[in-house]
Amino acid sequence: MKSICAAAALALTCAAQTAAAQDQHPTFTSGTATAQRGQKAYGVLKVPAGSDAGYDIPVVVIHGARPGPVLAVASGAHGTEYASIVAVEQLIDTVNPRDVSGTLVLVPIVNVPSFEKIVPHVNPTDNKSMNRAAIT
Fold it and tell me: What residue spans define the domains of the chain?
C-alpha cells in the first residue's frame, strides 16, 4: 500500500510540474480546513440538518509548496468500503505538502452515518444509496 501512495504522490507532483495552469493562491480552503502553501490542514464539511440531525464529513487539504492543479479524492460513499477509506487515510498520512505541486482535497468518509452504524450500501437515515440518489 505504501508503494501505491508513493506512486500516487509522485504522479501528482510530476503532472503538476508540467501543468500550464498555475494557482496563485497562498491559501486553499475546503469546508473548515484552510491550508497555507506547503501545509496540511484538517477540517470538516458541515452537512446541515435535514431528515437527520446533520453531521460533519472529514476533509483534509494538502496545499502544495508550489502552485499547480487541484485534485479531489473522495471515498466511503458506502460506509463499509473500508479499502478505499484506508487508502485515503494513508494518503493523508503519507503525502508531504513540501513535495507537492498543486493541491489535494482528501475526503476519507463521505457517508459518515453508514460508516458509524456499519450499514452497507445505503445511508441508514433515509435508506438511499449516495451513488444512485438524484439531486433535485
Answer: 2-117
